[in-house]
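User
Here is a favour to ask of a fellow structure person. I am asking you to supply a protein in sequence and C-alpha cell form. Please set it down just below, with no commentary around it:

Assistant
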Amino acid sequence: MTCSDKGYTRINILSTCSRSVETAKHKRIFISKRTSELVALMAISSTLFLFLHTRDLHTRLRSLQSVTNSASTSGDSTAMENDIDNFIQHDQKLEAYSLNNTGHAKKELIFFNRVPKVGSQTFMEILRLLSLRNQFVFYQDHVQRVETIRLAETEQLRVASMVSKYDTPSVFIKHISFVNFTKFYLPEPIYINLVRDPVERVISWYYYIRAPWYYVERKHAFPDTPLPDPNWLKKDFETCVLRGDRECRYTQGEKREGISDHRRQTMFFCGHDEECTPFNSEGALERAKRSVEQQYAVVGVLEDFNVTLTVFEHYIPRFFKGASKVYYGDMGLHKVNHNAFKPLVSEAVKDIVRKNFTREIEFYQFCRQRLYRQRLALNL
C-alpha cells in the first residue's frame, strides 16, 4: 500500500510518508558511507602495492647499474657479461616489451642516423646483406663534401618527408642528428644507432682523416679537394694532446662544427637545437638520454658487438633476423674495417682527454647499461 491509498487519513498519510522518507534517507547515507570507505581502502591498497613494486624495480635497476658501472669504468666487456650473467640468476623480472620502442613506430622503416667511427660502416654492410635475406629496401644517403649533422627546421622537414615516402619495409642511413618525425606530423620510424667509448672514438676519427686511403676516396669523389699539409698528416695524437693543439683541446662548452669536429656523440641523439651544440654540456647530455630512452628501439655498443647483435635480432627481428650469421659468415665482416695507420695511444694521454669527456662518457655508459638491460629482459 502506498502513501496515496484512499484508506489512509491525512494525518496517517503524512506520518507514514515522513517515516518512509526518513528511513530511505538514512539508508542512502549508510550505503554512500560504506561505498566511500571501500573506495578509500582500495586506493590505499593500490598505492601500497605500487609503492612496493616500484621500490623493488628501482632496487633491481640500481643493482644492475652498479654492475654495469664498474665494468664500464674498467672497459672490460667480458667482466661486464659475467657480472650481468650473475645478476640474471637472481633477477629475471625485467620485461622486454617495456624496454623496446619498436612498437611505437607507425611504419616498417628504420631510420639509422649513424654516428661516425662507431663501427657503423660494418653495421651498414650487415644491413645491406640482410636486405637481400629478409626482403627489405636499403637506402643510403650519398657521400657529401661536408657532412652537415645539424639542419635547419626546413631541411629536417625535407629529409623526414623524403624518407616517409620510401617503400616499406626499408632502411634509411645517414650521418645526421636525431630527427623527430612526429614534430612534422609524419609517421614515426624505428630509430636505431650505435655508440662507442668516446675517447677511443675521437682517437679513431683523428687517424681516420689522416689515413692515405681517406684522401684517395675524397679525391675520387671530389677531384678539387686540396691535399693537406704533410706535417699535419704526420702529427700523432699524443703530440697533439700534450702540445695543446687546437684540434685536440676538447674545451668544455665549446661550439665548433664541421668535418673536423666529431667529438660530440651526444649531438646525434640530442637533436638540431642550439642547446645541443656546447661540447660536454649537461643540457645536451640530458636531452640525448631522454631521446634514447623514449625514441630509440636499440642503441648498440661497438665494444659489446655480440650483445648488440643479439638485442637487435630479438627486438627488431623483421630486419635483423640472422644478423649474427651474416656478421660471422663467409664475408668475414668481423675481421674488416681496421685502420692499420692508427698507432697505440698511451693510457696517460687517454686519461688527460677523459677529464674533458665526463658527460660524453656518462652518455656512453648510459647507452651501454640500457643495452644490457634489454639483453637481461630477454632471459636468454
Q: What stands out?
A: The beta strands are 109-112, 137-140, 170-173, 190-195, 296-301. The two ends are 74 Å apart (CA to CA). The mean pLDDT is 81. The longest helix spans residues 10-74.
